[in-house]
Write a structure and sequence with these properties.
- With about 240 residues, the chain is of the alpha/beta class.
- The protein has helices at about 40-50, 70-80, 100-105, 115-125, 140-150, 170-185, 195-200, and strands at about 1-15, 15-25, 30-35, 55-60, 65, 85, 155-160, 190-195, 205-210, 210-220.
- The mean pLDDT is about 85.
Length: about 240
């Protein structure tokens, strides 16, 4: 069974077709990169895949279940149990510690466990920074904290929207190594990026242009060691 499948997916904003007849599949445990220039429809697609929005037409299957038009309660349930979100802007609570920022995600899942939260921080190399607030962390550490927060409820799918866009190259590589590790552990990863070098590390690349699906193909760098190349920042 596929982790994600979209069939004839469309999104309209008035007369504008933000997405026009999109079709692709994501296998369980696969890293899929969603790429394309600004205005290609990447953000619109991510909003639908993360259940922040609904398609105008077509079908979105999430683990085999139709998630195209869920009610509010089911949307919250699916998002809480199946999807972990990682944002470029971090969206951390500034007055909470790193540990508390992880635990707040547990709270929305109705299960708070400090030991599990500490293990999540340890998994991203931040257990020694558990008591620090976001302002006391570097940009790379804040992004790793976001990854720990996204993992705390053990979601099947991680959706990362430009997760390294605000990082220098050294921290970018640290974060990408975490994604490699998570893929090896069986997580399904959707990574949205403008950066062509970064996107090519996916098992699959879904390329959008002007709201249409231009191509679906294998990534070119998926067998390469990320430490062996110079990552170039993407261009809008």
């Amino acid at each position: 069974m596929n982790a994600i499948e979209v069939k004839n997916l469309c999104k309209f904003f008035g007369d504008v077709k933000a997405l026009d007849d999109i079709n692709f599949e994501v296998s369980k445990g696969q890293w899929t990169s969603i790429m394309g220039p600004s205005g290609s429809g990447k953000s619109t697609l991510v909003n639908i895949l993360s259940l922040m929005d609904s398609p105008s037409k077509g079908v979105y299957l999430l683990g085999g279940d139709d998630a195209s038009h869920l009610n509010e309660d089911d949307t919250l349930k699916y998002r809480r149990e199946k999807i972990g979100l990682i944002f470029q802007q971090f969206h951390l609570v500034p007055y909470l510690s790193a540990l508390e920022n992880v635990m707040i995600a547990q709270y929305y899942h109705s299960h708070v466990d400090e030991e599990d939260a500490l293990k999540a921080l340890e998994a991203v190399g931040l257990s020694h920074r558990a008591s620090h607030r976001p302002s006391q962390l570097s940009g790379g550490e804040q992004q790793r904290l976001c990854i720990a927060r996204s993992l705390i409820n053990d979601p099947e799918i991680l959706i990362a929207d430009e997760p390294t866009g605000n990082l220098d190259e050294a921290n970018e590589k640290i974060v990408l190594e975490l994604f490699f590790k998570l893929r090896q552990e069986g997580k399904t990863i959707l990574l949205v990026t403008h950066n062509p070098e970064l996107g090519e590390f996916g098992d699959k690349v879904v390329y959008l242009r002007h709201g249409k699906l231009e191509e679906v193909r294998e990534g070119k760098n998926k067998q390469r060691d990320i430490q062996s190349i110079n990552l170039k920042k993407g261009v809008n």
